[in-house]
Design a protein that fits this description.
95 residues, alpha+beta, 3 helices, 24% helix, 19% strand
C-alpha cells in the first residue's frame, strides 16, 4: 500500500502511529480491509508494518485481530479535512 520511506513516515505520523523507527529498504505498510457480515455497510481495517498490527490512536480495536472501524481510522485532525470547503480554507494562502 505504501512502499517508500518518504510516503510511509508521513502517513504514520499523520495517523499518530509512528514509533520513530525509520522504514527499512523495501518496507511496506499493508492495509487490510474487511466487510462485516453482522453489520451490513460496516467496514473494518487493519494496518500492518513488518508483519505486526499497528496501533493507531484514533482506533479502538475490535476483537483479537485488532481490527478498526473504517470510520475511526483517521484522527479527527485529518478526518475533518475530508470536507472540501474546509480543506480549501486550510490550504489556501491568507488573503
Amino acid at each position: 500500500w505504501a512502499t517508500h520511506d518518504t510516503v510511509i513516515t508521513p502517513m504514520l505520523v499523520a495517523l499518530g502511529a509512528w514509533d520513530g523507527t525509520w522504514p527499512h529498504y523495501t518496507e511496506a505498510i499493508v492495509l487490510e480491509l474487511y466487510r462485516s457480515r453482522e453489520k451490513p455497510g460496516t467496514a473494518y481495517v487493519r494496518l500492518l508494518r513488518r508483519g505486526r498490527s499497528l496501533e493507531v490512536p484514533s482506533c479502538q480495536p475490535v476483537g483479537p485481530l485488532g481490527l478498526c472501524d473504517l470510520e475511526r481510522l483517521l484522527p479527527p485532525a485529518v478526518s475533518k479535512q475530508r470536507d472540501p470547503q474546509l480543506r480549501l480554507q486550510l490550504c489556501s494562502p491568507p488573503p
